[in-house]
């Protein structure tokens, strides 16, 4: 189903409204500037990362209907940098004639991960076995069905492992429910999945249904947070094609518009399961800034504005390493000169004023003859960085 989009031929420069002002909005704003577009962000923090790159920063919450409406009236199209904006509030904007992409219906299908998995199953996309856990009886049903270990997850608002709890034995059951906010928070259970590799694909789809599919990457995790990405992933052409088919199928199933991050598990037998999808530009696609003809950020803007998508051709092997804070302190990087001295390393910092454990403060990308060669360069540069106490 095609979507309405701003008319780039008669309304230039286009003004893109982004709900959220974090690092993803920052990189979208930088890409918009290259295209001659203007970005306005709505964020409750006066020091959000995107503030310096955006043409305008509105201090406010996307959970406030009045703030949302006032913001919408100043822009041509609204998009998101996270999946936490309530779909009902976006639907209210659509009813008043504002363009929201991804649409409120897409967000409704994706932001609740139980609903997302049920939808993917209806479209025949393989996922890990799951079931709702609304109360103690359903929790015990999960135990009897999946055995130990299994994973208890929040249906909404989880990210970087914060919404997951591994239940290894009966003593973990109550602890898991409590940590995730209780049954009232909305929970579901997932069968333990002994994967051998985590993969990811960025798919961008525009308002006419045209898709651009970026290469399959290997996403390496540490403590449930992505630590590095290698591209292309060391998988067979058949496995890559299976990943592409699943990723595109998932985005088409929700009638998505924009760049979507699709995470997958590879099992021991080489088959794939779709883990989850995010209706936004994604950490696993940061490498596209240097490694692809058109980045996930630029293509997201093209997509939501109804413009032709750019080439996603990969220029060489590539890697990305996240710069994660290890402890609380100032956001000022130490070791910057040494990191900058590493040939071939491209440093990106998000300008966050405070460092917190596991917080993403920036990333390093590198190109190389092989993904591992690129990874060595990126890791060398990232290894020099720490943050002031």
UniProtKB/TrEMBL annotation:
Gene Ontology biological-process entries: 'de novo' IMP biosynthetic process
Superkingdom as given in the UniProt entry: Bacteria
Stored InterPro entries: ATP-grasp, ATP-grasp_carboxylate-amine, ATP_grasp_subdomain_1, PreATP-grasp_dom_sf, PurK, PurK_C, PurT/PurK_preATP-grasp, Rudment_hybrid_motif
Pathway annotation: Purine metabolism; IMP biosynthesis via de novo pathway; 5-amino-1-(5-phospho-D-ribosyl)imidazole-4-carboxylate from 5-amino-1-(5-phospho-D-ribosyl)imidazole (N5-CAIR route): step 1/2
Family affiliation: Belongs to the PurK/PurT family.
HAMAP family per UniProt: PurK
Subunit comment: Homodimer.
Entry-linked NCBIfam families: PRK06019.1-5 (NF004679), purK (TIGR01161)
Name of protein: N5-carboxyaminoimidazole ribonucleotide synthase
Gene for this chain: purK
């Amino acid at each position: 189903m095609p979507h309405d989009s701003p008319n780039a031929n008669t309304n230039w420069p286009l003004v893109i409204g982004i709900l959220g002002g974090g690092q993803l909005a920052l990189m979208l704003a930088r890409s918009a500037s290259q295209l001659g577009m203007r970005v306005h962000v709505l964020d409750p923090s006066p020091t959000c990362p995107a503030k310096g790159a955006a043409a305008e920063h509105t201090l406010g919450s996307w959970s406030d209907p009045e703030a949302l409406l006032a913001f919408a009236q100043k822009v041509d199209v609204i998009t998101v940098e996270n999946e936490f904006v309530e779909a009902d509030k976006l639907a209210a904007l659509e009813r008043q004639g504002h363009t929201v992409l991804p649409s409120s219906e897409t967000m409704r299908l994706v932001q609740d991960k139980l609903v997302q998995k049920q939808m993917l199953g209806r479209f025949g996309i393989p996922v890990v076995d799951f079931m709702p856990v609304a109360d103690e009886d359903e929790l015990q049903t999960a135990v009897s069905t999946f055995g130990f270990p299994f994973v208890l997850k929040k249906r909404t608002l989880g990210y970087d492992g914060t919404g997951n709890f591994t239940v290894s034995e009966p003593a973990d059951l109550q602890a898991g429910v409590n940590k995730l906010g209780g049954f009232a928070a909305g929970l579901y259970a997932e069968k333990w999945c002994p994967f051998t590799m985590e993969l990811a694909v960025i798919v961008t789809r525009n308002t006419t249904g045209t898709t651009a599919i970026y290469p399959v990457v290997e996403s390496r995790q540490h403590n449930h947070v992505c630590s590095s990405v290698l591209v292309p992933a060391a998988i067979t052409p058949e496995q890559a094609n299976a990943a592409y088919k699943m990723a595109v199928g998932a985005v088409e199933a929700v009638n998505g518009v924009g760049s979507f991050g699709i995470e997958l598990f590879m099992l021991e037998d080489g088959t794939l399961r779709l883990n989850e999808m995010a209706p936004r530009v994604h950490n696993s696609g940061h490498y596209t800034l240097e490694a692809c003809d058109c980045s996930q950020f630029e293509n997201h803007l093209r997509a939501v504005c109804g413009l032709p998508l750019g080439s996603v051709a990969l220029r060489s092997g590539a890697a990305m390493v996240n710069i994660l804070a290890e402890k609380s302190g100032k956001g000022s990087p130490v070791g910057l000169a040494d990191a900058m001295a590493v040939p071939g390393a491209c440093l990106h910092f998000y300008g966050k004023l405070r460092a917190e454990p596991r917080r993403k403060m920036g990333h390093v990308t590198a190109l190389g003859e092989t993904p591992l060669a690129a990874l060595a360069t990126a890791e060398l540069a990232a290894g020099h960085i720490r943050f002031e106490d």
